[in-house]
Amino acid sequence: MTYKRRDFIKTGAGALVGLAGAPMIARGADAQQFHWRMTGAYPAGAPFYSTGPGSASDFAKRVEAASGGRMKIDFFPAGELVPALGGFDAVRSGTVQMNWGNSFFWAGRSFAAQYFTAVPFGMDVMMVNAWLYHGGGQALWDEVYADFGLKALPVGNTGMQMTGWFKEPLENIDSFKGLRMRIAGLSAKVYEQLGVNVKVLPGGEIFPALERGVIDAAEFVGPYLDRQLGLQNAASNYYTPGWHEPSNVSELLINASAWEQLPEDLKAVVQNCAAACNEISFAWCNANNSEALNDLTQNQGVTVRQLPDGVLPRLREVTMDTLSAEAAKDPMVAKVNTAYFDFMKTAKSWLDVSEKVVLNLDL
Length: 363
Known about the structure:
The chain is α/β, with parallel strands linked by helices. About 45% of the residues lie in helices and about 15% in strands. The chain has 13 helices and eleven strands. The chain has helices at about 5-20, 55-65, 85-95, 125-135, 135-145, 185-195, 205-210, 225-230, 255-260, 265-300, 310-330, 330-350, 355-360, and strands spanning about 35-40, 70-75, 100, 150-155, 165, 180, 195-200, 215-220, 235-240, 250-255, 305. Strand 1, helix 2 and strand 2 form a beta-alpha-beta unit. Helix 2 packs antiparallel against helix 10 (about 265-300), helix 8 (about 225-230) packs across helix 10 (about 265-300) and helix 11 (about 310-330) packs across helix 12 (about 330-350).
């Protein structure tokens, strides 16, 4: 049986191009439509989180485009539908299907949830992505949230952060005693052991609190996003390194019942758009932080300082003691803690002879 070349191009090669160029999405009048709502932990206009490449609004646009319009997501930044830190309850109750934030905000519900945002002295973005996508981390995340009727996916990462902004320079480890500081996640527990009065504030409330003297210090993310909040106008001592958050994973929180109602092709769309935002947002941070840091130090009177001698070893000691104590109290925390640090040890063995060597070269 023979085919004309022109017919092959129309029916054969043309069909292959169509398959390669578009996802396998059911289309047509009978295709099921989904219209979801997603809240966020950050205010409208917040770069990285609410707007811009890899953000919540970007994710919603990508899902609609990739699904051929079958799935639409209305995004409500912090305060528009629920309070900044109300996303967990909103998703759990089914008020909305999704929330965009960070898992460490839910420490009061599950201590183990925090491991999926950031761990002090833990994995960097390369290692944590390897753990989540290929090292069993995603399955553990699902297990932690199963009793709450929730599912989560990684949708962003800031990479390495800064220690934060301090009104007064730090002299030694005792400088933390009595300090009022905005900090969230596992590092908040560590700071508490050192006498810090910890304040958990959403991003939009950090600058007013720092400016008015309600707090003495604050951490948020890194140069670009910190400058966007205006933190340099309330404190001028900018400390490094980000021991508390070597990476920081953004979380797409999903109502498990709603998730199970999605057909497999739309689940794949959500997963792939989330993975795209995870990578794109990290690249965006790296592309913008250098310029912002130069501007802060050269034009806005900011001084970048290293933590004083002896501070990091003490912080690490308290971190490991804190995590061990929490693991002893909760089998789930113990399970996640062991899995996290076992994977980190393996991943680090490779990075120590590859990335670390090159980055430490003084050429």
